[in-house]
Specification:
By secondary structure, the chain is of the alpha+beta class. Helices cover 28% and strands 25% of the residues. It contains 7 helices and 12 strands. The strands form 4 sheets. Strands 7-6-12-9-10 form a 5-stranded mixed β-sheet, with no helix packed on it. It has a 3-stranded antiparallel β-sheet with strand order 2-1-5, sandwiched between helices. Helix 1 packs antiparallel against helix 7. The longest helix has 22 residues. The radius of gyration is 28 Å and the shape is elongated.
């Protein structure tokens, strides 16, 4: 009987150990007790440099709207601001790194920042078509910040956010949060660069992740949330689920023991 009790205690300990602890579910914890500084130093985020397949929204304005109407795309109004409208009426960076604008023709933008593209378009307009009195205003934006998130996430898939900057926490919140069996300590970011692809893991349970350059999502990022071992153990993700499993197992073992000792 003592052996049976020891066995049951061992099984119960294993089951409770299989629960996902609170420290693995809490974001942005202060893990270093010696660190008394509460202010997180801001990360110097480098401006995004355009890649192939990026879609740009370029808006040109002037004192007289008729002067710049020939440089505008056909889409106007709210429909042009939708994701589908920006896809069809925006300027896509082709495989050669160029965009094609009305009248201005092909402009190479590969590896340029948005500000550099804006200055280039303004320079072309002022040197070839307008003078300074026309008061030309050029606005260049990405047609949405697109990223893909997969794995242990509430709503996986490709997402588009119309913001200048998006943190990894915002991207996860926009995707239904990480599931209880998702590994918050090793979220993988796969990032595209003109020279190739980089892969990096970040720990979202550590407040110092806010100092990482990967804390901010870049266009075309792929975010993958791996599963914790508890998902495959099948013993319960919470204390209540594990307790239910323990009670069921105890009942089964007790019934079996009573039947064998009769």
């Amino acid at each position: 009987m003592n052996k049976s009790l020891l066995f049951l205690l061992a099984v119960a300990s294993l089951l409770f150990a299989s629960c996902v602890p609170l420290k693995d579910l809490t974001y942005l914890q202060k893990k270093d007790p010696s660190d008394t500084e509460n202010v997180i130093n801001p990360v110097n985020v480098k401006p995004y440099r355009l890649q192939t397949n990026d879609v740009l929204s370029i808006e040109i304005k002037a004192n007289d709207p008729k002067l710049v109407s020939i440089f505008s795309v056909s889409g106007t109004g709210q429909s042009a601001k939708s994701e589908a409208g920006l896809y069809f009426d925006g300027f896509t960076v082709d495989d050669h790194g160029n965009i094609r604008m009305p009248v201005l023709g092909e402009i190479n933008v590969l590896g340029f920042t948005l500000d550099e593209v804006r200055l280039d378009v303004e320079k072309r307009l002022l040197s070839e078509y307008f003078n300074k009195e026309a008061d030309i205003f050029v606005n260049v934006k990405l047609a949405g910040l697109r990223y893909t998130i997969n794995g242990e996430i509430g709503s996986p898939g490709s997402k588009v956010l119309y913001q200048e900057k998006v943190t990894i926490m915002e991207a996860i919140a926009n995707s239904g949060d990480i599931t209880i069996t998702g590994d918050r300590k090793a979220v993988t970011i796969i990032r595209q660069f003109p020279q190739g692809t980089e892969m990096h893991d970040i720990d979202l349970t550590d407040v110092k992740v806010m100092q990482s350059p990967y804390y901010y999502v870049k266009p075309n990022d792929y975010i993958y949330v791996k599963a914790l071992p508890q998902k495959t153990w099948g013993t319960g993700k919470t204390g209540i689920e594990s307790l239910t499993t323990v009670i069921t197992l105890l009942s089964l073992v007790t019934t079996t023991y009573l039947l064998l000792t009769r």
